[in-house]
Amino acid sequence: VQLQASGGGLVQPGGSLRLSCAASGTISSIRIMGWYHQAPGKERELVAIIFISGGSTQIADSVKGRFTISRDNAKSTVYLQMNSLQPEDTAVYYCNFQSLARNYWGKGTLVTVSS
Fold first, then answer.
1. Which of 62-70's residues contact partners 24+ apart within 8 Å by CB, and which partners?
2. pLDDT tens digits for 59-82?
């Protein structure tokens, strides 16, 4: 099973992007879906996660109020709506699914915020 992220690209400051991540097959017992990002020269950091049971979310302070995470359980897909993008949001964004058995990572999609 692989995770395929899409939706990255080049956007001007203040713009928006929507990232999507879907599993290529069936993953049983997914507990958490999430997004992380890694800027050049920095470590990978959590952006947002959503709990499958109940739908509660955790959002990093740096993007709170600008980014929203959502999911479609039936499609095993997680989304990240990113608004009011700033140059400091430039990074490779990775999706992550956590099941009872293991942790799954997508290959990443590049988001570049620049004028």
1. 62/88, 63/89, 69/33, 69/34, 69/35
2. 999 999 999 999 988 888 999 999
